[in-house]
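2024-03-11 09:14:02 DEBUG pipeline.ingest accepted 1 chain
2024-03-11 09:14:02 DEBUG pipeline.ingest length=242
2024-03-11 09:14:03 DEBUG pipeline.predict start
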Amino acid sequence: MSERLNRYLARAGVGSRREADRLIAAGRVTINGAVAELGARVGPDDEVRVDGRLVRPLAHQHFLYHKRRGELCTRRDPAGRPSIYDHLPIAPHVQSIGRLDFQTEGLLLLTSDGALARALTDPARGIVREYRVRVRGHLSEQALAQLLAGGVPIGRNELSEPWEVVVEVETRSHSWLRVRLRRGRWREVRRTLAALGHPVARLIRTRFGPIRLNPERDPPGALRPLNRRERMALYRAAGLRP
């Protein structure tokens, strides 16, 4: 099965797809001895060289990162805000599986397998995401019923999905909730709770599919490769073979 040359080079750790395109345009890449052109495709039996050096795609890489508040999950930000990619020692072709917004903390999975990332974020698969949420105020029975039923208008002509919600702790001014949902729409947790009059003060993702966050083993800012059991569980959840 063939793939675009720039993707092949990115998987080989040469650089991002954009950087690979620059190498190709400069005539520094060959396929089976011939200078490659932009948009070229290669198969598993082709010989690809960069500046005469043979390159091969690396085995897929999968990581768990405990994201801290105040980090983006994008590689470039016009405002110059910090990004996880500024300091994580990962190859350019390793990307997050979905994203967490700037102020959201917790479990973030990263992979070099684009097919796995697409399958795990496909709304049709209903992959579970679980969060601990600190909100202002105490939720009424009516608000809880609305969260369980779904259908809350959250802007952009969208309605919230049905959630599983448990109130864990209530203080004088705040509540801690455990929320489970099966679709990762843009800022859905924040938008839904704000629509019900309970703005989110803190949001921590604790689970994505079969992978759970253990803060004692993986404290904020920690990055580690997924072990074999975790990798296999992710591929099973995605309906793919590793």
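2024-03-11 09:14:41 DEBUG pipeline.report DSSP finds six helices and 15 strands in the chain.
2024-03-11 09:14:41 DEBUG pipeline.predict end
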